[in-house]
Write a structure and sequence with these properties.
By secondary structure, this protein is α+β, with helices and mostly antiparallel strands. It contains six helices and eight strands. The strands form two sheets. The protein has a five-stranded antiparallel sheet with strand order 6-5-2-1-8. A three-stranded antiparallel sheet has the order 3-4-7, with no helix packed on it.
């Protein structure tokens, strides 16, 4: 009885044997067909964040990116080849290769994400950023929102922080963690009391968080001022 792994191993060995006899121009051509699409995909995924996708979708995207890049890149190189041979033509070919297969793939991945973002806002397509964790923190840090984060941990503790430097949240493909900045004491009702003296922050893994609440700092500041005023009014005159 022949196992299913047999043909897979044979195929890999044949592919390796074929590549081992390939010439340098053939290897460069293969790299030009694959690497630019992979570069575009990595730029897009770095912008998009969110969860990883299955291998089939990734391969389809690489092929699609590579097709567009190669179509434009080889068209430009063909135009350059029409110039009579000269040192300037060789330099122009090199510059065209760099622009077509390195710079353009980066711009393609970036531009496709920005186009998708615009289409999401217009309601034409679904949001490619599927995880609220990535979406919320990306908006907070990009728009520099002045917020307080109150985290309820799985052990029952509640910690609060104003999201100031060095506050940071990691997103896909990294493990989801949050570095809280200015730490505050919290009373039994979940209200901020006073900042911890000398605190530089707290690193928390998402797996340790039960809930995460965000409050505008302006609301907290107003509450603190009102409470301070009430405390001052309650003091007996000196």
């Amino acid at each position: 009885m022949r196992y299913a792994e047999g043909p897979t191993i044979d195929t890999l060995l044949k592919a390796y044997d074929t590549l081992s006899h390939a010439t340098i121009p053939q290897m460069l051509a293969l790299a030009a067909l694959i690497i630019p699409g992979l570069l575009s995909l990595r730029v897009y995924e770095a912008k998009r964040g969110g969860e990883g996708r299955n291998a089939n979708d990734v391969l389809i995207d690489i092929a699609a990116y590579s097709f567009v890049i190669d179509l434009i890149g080889f068209a430009l190189l063909s135009i350059v080849n029409l110039i009579p041979p000269s040192p300037w033509q060789m330099l122009l070919r090199l510059l065209t290769f760099v622009v077509a297969f390195i710079v353009f793939p980066i711009l393609l991945g970036w531009g496709w994400y920005e186009m998708q973002t615009w289409m999401v806002r217009a309601g034409f397509v679904a949001d490619p950023i599927q995880k609220p964790w990535d979406k919320v923190f990306r908006r907070i840090f990009q728009q520099k929102l002045d917020l307080v984060a109150i985290a309820t941990l799985r052990d029952g503790r509640r910690v609060a922080s104003r999201l100031l430097d060095p506050a940071y949240a990691s997103t896909y493909p990294a493990d989801e963690q949050i570095l809280l900045g200015e730490m505050w004491k919290v009373d039994e009702d979940g209200r901020l009391v006073a900042p911890y003296s000398g605190s530089y922050g707290m690193l928390i893994d998402k797996a340790d968080i039960e809930t995460l609440e965000f409050i505008e700092w302006s609301s907290v500041a107003t509450y603190l001022r009102d409470r301070q005023k009430e405390t001052s009014d309650e003091r007996p005159p000196g």
